[in-house]
């Protein structure tokens, strides 16, 4: 049975904004600045280390500062080079905050849904980066508030993150709230933990090998119209 939703919580990266494109451009620019040729293998290696750190962060094993300030030192250590991780992170972040490539259909969907629902962003990340990317992409005006884990003090899928969001918005009826996101380990798991519905944005039709259970699954962001409108 379809519920009557009022509050839509949107994940940002790889749900509305194309993080892979932003990350790619930022890495390319960083390496250009460092005058180091960046190969596809190096890109994949960076992503592997970075994702490993994010997974550790989502499990609460390492803090956000440790994550961002060590990812480049860990990466370069792999290539036998000692660098100041925090300094490289700063350089990288300056490029990353320019990345505002939209997922196909995202701007139109958000604009149209904002006429009918209350929209919020719930994202794990760094506040200034996410704010800047939202602004540049044209998405920002359609959201009532942007919840960034750095500011909240907890990250998805932690129940504390969601409790903060619910209390800030003043949500008492969890049935009227749904989260839309691409990550099973943060968005859908978070929904399961918090007791709200969820829509898994799964454009590449990945298999769900986790114990997180989405209420809905979509391939294109425009499919939200069918789910949200009876
Ligand atoms: Mg995401």
TrEMBL record:
InterPro entries: HAD-like_sf, HAD-SF_hydro_IA, HAD-SF_hydro_IA_YjjG/PynA, HAD_2, HAD_sf, PGP-like_dom2, Pyrimidine_5'-ntase_YjjG. This is HAD family hydrolase. Transmembrane segments: none annotated. One of its GO terms (molecular function) is 5'-nucleotidase activity. Pfam families: HAD_2 (PF13419). Keywords: Hydrolase. Gene3D superfamilies: HAD superfamily/HAD-like (3.40.50.1000), Putative phosphatase, domain 2 (1.10.150.240). SUPFAM superfamilies: HAD-like. It comes from Ureibacillus massiliensis 4400831 = CIP 108448 = CCUG 49529.
């Amino acid at each position: 049975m379809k519920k009557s939703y009022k509050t839509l919580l949107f994940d940002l990266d790889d749900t509305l904004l194309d993080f892979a494109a932003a990350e790619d451009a930022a890495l390319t620019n960083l390496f250009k600045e460092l005058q180091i040729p960046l190969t596809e293998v190096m890109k994949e290696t960076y992503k592997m280390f970075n994702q490993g750190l994010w997974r550790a962060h989502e499990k609460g094993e390492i803090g956000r500062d440790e994550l961002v300030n060590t990812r480049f030192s860990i990466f370069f250590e792999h290539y036998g080079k000692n660098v100041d991780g925090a300094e490289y992170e700063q350089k990288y972040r300056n490029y990353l905050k320019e990345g505002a490539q939209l997922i196909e259909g995202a701007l139109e969907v958000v604009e149209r849904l904002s006429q009918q629902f209350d929209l919020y962003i719930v994202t794990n990340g760094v506040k200034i980066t996410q704010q800047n990317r939202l602004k540049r992409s044209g998405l920002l005006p359609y959201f009532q508030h942007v919840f960034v884990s750095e500011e909240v003090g907890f990250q998805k899928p932690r129940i504390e993150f969601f409790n903060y969001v619910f209390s800030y918005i003043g949500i008492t009826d969890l049935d009227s709230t749904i989260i839309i996101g691409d990550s099973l380990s943060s968005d859908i798991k978070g929904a399961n933990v918090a007791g709200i519905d969820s829509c898994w944005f799964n454009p590449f039709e990945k298999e769900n090998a986790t114990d997180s259970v989405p209420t809905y699954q979509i391939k294109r962001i425009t499919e939200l119209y069918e789910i949200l409108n009876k």
